[in-house]
Design a protein that fits this description.
Distance between the termini: 12 Å
Shape: globular
Protein name: Alcohol dehydrogenase catalytic domain-containing protein
Number of domains: 1
InterPro entries: ADH-like_N, GroES-like_sf
Pfam families: ADH_N
Structural class: alpha+beta
CATH topology: Quinone Oxidoreductase, Chain A, domain 1
CATH architecture: Alpha-Beta Complex
Strand content: 25-35%
Largest sheet: 6 strands, antiparallel
Keywords: NADP, Oxidoreductase
Length: 159
């Protein structure tokens, strides 16, 4: 299968082994994935201190697609179901910019109805970031907050 990787600041599409889901995981056939600032930082080697140095590193955090295989112990999803998910581990040889991606079932949710895969792919990392920021504020009942600038990701289709 194909995966987009980075090596010394250069992007390359390479053939990698097809990943198999383990216990508590699902495999998603990517229909859309995003490009986020963290992908650019990874490409340029700025985050290499957070993972073991490798010749190549996979890119991509957000994904929208269909479940194509279900690992043991996963009962919340069905084959062919449209989902969104996030791959939040740096340094993997293949991430969401690949034909297929294996994710922990806990990192996957059903895609919202009525949205395209391109639209759905923008949700996981932006939504997680917004949720974490709101949690850090420690708001109390009756307080409110305005979240702006949540459009930092760019969408890419990889057929």
């Amino acid at each position: 299968m194909r995966a987009l990787t980075a090596h010394s600041g250069t992007l390359e599409i390479v053939e990698v082994p097809t990943p198999e889901p383990g216990r508590g995981q699902v495999r998603v056939r990517m229909e859309a994935a995003t490009v986020n600032p963290v992908d650019l930082a990874t490409r340029d080697g700025h985050l290499a201190a957070f993972y073991s140095p490798r010749e190549r590193v996979g890119l991509g955090w957000d994904v929208a697609g269909t479940i194509d295989e279900i690992g043991p112990g996963v009962t919340d999803f069905e084959l062919g179901e449209m989902v969104i998910g996030v791959s939040d581990i740096l340094g993997l040889p293949s991430k969401t910019h690949a034909d297929l991606v294996v994710l922990d079932a806990a990192a996957v949710a059903r895609a919202p109805r009525g949205v395209t895969p391109v639209e759905a792919a923008t949700i996981p990392l932006n939504g997680l970031t917004a949720s974490q920021a709101i949690d850090m504020l420690g708001l109390h009942e009756g307080q409110s907050v305005l979240v702006t600038g949540a459009a930092g990701g760019r969408v890419v289709l990889v057929p």
